[in-house]
Amino acid sequence: MSFYVIRPVGEKLFEGLLIEGKKKDKIKYFSALTLEDLHHKKIFLVLTPNQFFYEVYGLELVVFNETILKIKLNERIQNVGFLMGSYEVYWKILKKEGNLYKIAYLAIEKEPIERLKRLLKEEGKAKVEGVFFTPLVLAKALSEEGILVYQERDILWILVVESGIPYFTEFLRIDELLGVNYSEIKGRITFLKSSFYRDYQKELERIYVFQREIEEGLRGEGLEPVFLETEYPEFIYAPKGDEEFNFLSLEERVIKTVIEKSYKVSLGLLGLGVLFLGATGVLFKINQDLKREIERKNSLIQEAFSSLTQKYSPEKLKAFINYVEEISKLRREPQPLEILLGIVDALEDAKITSLEVRPEGALASGGGSLNSTQSFSPNSPEAPAQKSSPTVLTYSITLAGEKRGIPLDLNSWTREFLTKLEKLVEIKDKKIETLSDESKVIFEIKGVLKKRDV
Questions:
Q1: How many structural domains is the chain composed of?
Q2: CA angle 50–51–52, rounded 5-degree value
Q3: Residues 93 and 183 occupy one common structural domain
Q4: Is residue 88 part of a domain?
Q5: What is the CATH number of the domain that holds 64?
Q6: Phi, psi for residue 407 in degrees, rounded to 5
Q7: Residue 124 belongs to a domain
Q8: For the segment 145-183, what is each residue's pLDDT rounded down to a tens digit?
Q9: How many CA atoms lie within 13 A of 110 on its CB side?
Q10: Apex 366 CA angle, 360 and 369, nearest 5
């Protein structure tokens, strides 16, 4: 097992580490890596884009809905007015108490990331495992509360971290001639300690550093930093990055995982024009009409929500939320990529011999097609009746395969496999047989796909 962790340092030029062995037995630093050096190599990419906005934010949501959450976060970002151009938003829910959510979120300019991914994949032929934001990677070095100070080339990061998540992030540009201004750093540390206590009523006792020069400079200002003996932490901790903040899309992560594990998947899917998974190898077909309809309605929702929150009473807002809930039903149907990713995770290195997903209900009896969608407004005279029958009621699934190993490991694997699968599937019937003489277990699972939580 070996992979590179890199960051761009020039046009088609990177620096980074080659890490070999499951326990990182061998680590080698490269100051210059070309696309040719990265051909067909597994890589993690660590980035520090020019424009980003990150914070931990408290939010009240009467009804949790990803669409409403994204609207709220976009409103917050636009009110701050820091980002220009198109950006992507990533978030992770840290805590929930009743209707109150504590959310870490990152808004980051999209095009530079996409450009680098295309360069590495298409020209470099590299296998991109993950793309992460530098401060979020550095924060993984701390499992407790503390302030982390780290110099990354001409940037100095000051992070307030709790349980591997940055709560405050600041960076200072380092003047090439004057060097690091430790008096300024001390002032920022004092400010961040005060802010953290104000917001969370917790004292920050420790300051952590990775570089001796930074340690000595802070000691010169009367501070007592703790030195962490880890070289290149922005590279070392990249594989531990949160998937919620992985800049790879869901499609990219699924394809990467399936190809990496080399599953032999035989898929027969009967869907009246809707393919969940493919025929030869793995195919993904997204219902483009449905996707466009969701995107169009999401745009309308964002405009309406901004207006409603300013002009209308809580009662009318509740009515609007009910409307959003109706729209969100479009997204509750099981999604092909999520199904495959969940199955891949549950199976680990088992072999799939058969996988079939079949729609049942209105579609199966000729009652409609997922290739056609309806657009309606609550005020439209042609709005459908409230008790209109759904297009597709359920999807049945049949999954068969085998797993090799010693009997004790196979028993443990079977229990874990079923636990993971039950998150995706309501199991109706299962046949599991252990063949001791062949050191393998064979299985066949039948059930119904669970609806997605939106």
A1: 2
A2: 125
A3: yes
A4: yes
A5: 3.30.420.40
A6: -50, -45
A7: no
A8: 999 999 998 999 999 999 999 999 999 999 888 899 999
A9: 7
A10: 85
Do 375 and 355 reside in the same domain of the chain? yes
Q: Is residue 364 classed exposed, middle or buried when 0-12, 13-18 and 19+ CB atoms within 10 A define those classes?
A: middle
For 150, what's the count of Cα atoms within 13 Å in the CB-facing half-sphere? Answer: 26
* CB burial of residue 14 (10 Å; 0-12, 13-18, 19+): buried
> What does the block give as tokens for 194?
């005060």
**Domain around 199:** 49-112+129-246
365 — pLDDT class (breaks 50, 70, 90): very low
Query: Would you place residue 320 in the very low, low, confident or very high pLDDT band (cuts 50, 70, 90)?
Result: low
Which residues have CB under 8 Å from 93's CB, separation 6+? 101, 102, 103
Instruction: Report pTM.
Output: 0.64
Query: Is residue 435 assigned to a domain?
Result: yes
Structure tokens at 397: 């699934």
Could you tell me which residues are beta bridge partners of residue 150?
157
What is the rounded CA–CA span in Å between residue 352 and residue 417? 13
Q: Are 229 and 255 within one domain? A: no
Query: What tens digit of pLDDT does each residue of 192-201 get?
Result: 999 999 999 9
| 85 and 147 co-located in one domain | yes
- 151 and 133 in a single domain? The answer is yes
Q: What is the largest CA-CA distance in the chain?
A: 78
Last residue of a domain, one of 221, 246, 271: 246
